[in-house]
Amino acid sequence: MSENYKIVVLDNKKPKILYDNDGDYYKDGRHMIIPGIQITREFKKLINDEIEENQLLEKVFKEIMRLHPPVPILPRHVEADDTLGKYALKGNSDVLFSAHLLHRHPDFWDQPESFDPHRFDAETEKKRHPYAYIPFGGGPRMCLGNNFAMMEAIFILAMTTQRFRLNLTQNANITPLISLTNRPKYGVPVTLQRRRFD
């Protein structure tokens, strides 16, 4: 059994229950998640309803992960002798492959170095090889938290960009640091400018 958790809306700085996993959920205003571990159908519906209007944001996020996958190099164990293209693989050996290179391979991506969120339009995605895009790995060893991570990231981006304009600072040095995970070596220095809705 999972922990009990609630999703609340901040109403005049007073928490108001939006969803309680012991009861029903109510779609109402802004909300945040109080930590819990179970993702229910109701929670997914709630978030999907909220981000339906942000489909472009989801495509933008997917394209960012195509160009900068969170785990750029993935290991696999070879159980028995096999061949991969023109390469012989010995059984009981380990191989590494690069999601970073795969996501930029011209056999799978037109103009692979360009930033184009429309690569993730529904019709385009249907035509793509299922393993051409693997920011969370693939097959039986795919990251179990991939759906939650996508939902959480898109939700945070949507809530942040609704309220603030993010401006990169003038002397920002965005340099990738590739290790077990891909991240910016010096962080991403930004200033937040509150959006005005007059």
How would you characterize this protein structure?
- With 198 residues, this protein is of the alpha+beta class.
- 26% of the residues lie in helices and 25% in strands.
- It has helices at residues 41-51, 55-67, 99-102, 122-127, 146-163, and strands spanning 6-11, 14-20, 32-33, 73-78, 82-84, 87-89, 93-98, 164-168, 176-178, 182-184, 190-194.
- The termini are far apart.
- The model is unreliable at 1-40 (pLDDT under 50).
Key attributes of the depicted protein:
disordered N terminus; alpha+beta; two-stranded antiparallel sheet; 26% helix; 25% strand; elongated; 198 residues; 5 helices; single chain
Tell me the Rg in angstroms: 20 Å
What form results from the Cα inertia axes?
A: elongated
Q: Tally of extended strands?
A: 11
The description of the largest β-sheet is: 3 strands, antiparallel
| SS field, number of helical segments | 5
Q: Structural class of the secondary elements?
A: alpha+beta
* Spatial order of the strands forming the largest sheet: 2-1-3
- The share of residues in helices is 25-40%
Question: Kindly state the mean pLDDT as a whole number?
Answer: 77
Query: Hey, roughly how much beta strand do the residues contain?
Result: 15-25%
Unreliable stretches: 1-40
How far is it from the N-terminal to the C-terminal residue, by CA?
47 Å
Order of helices and strands: EEEHHEEEEHHHEEEE
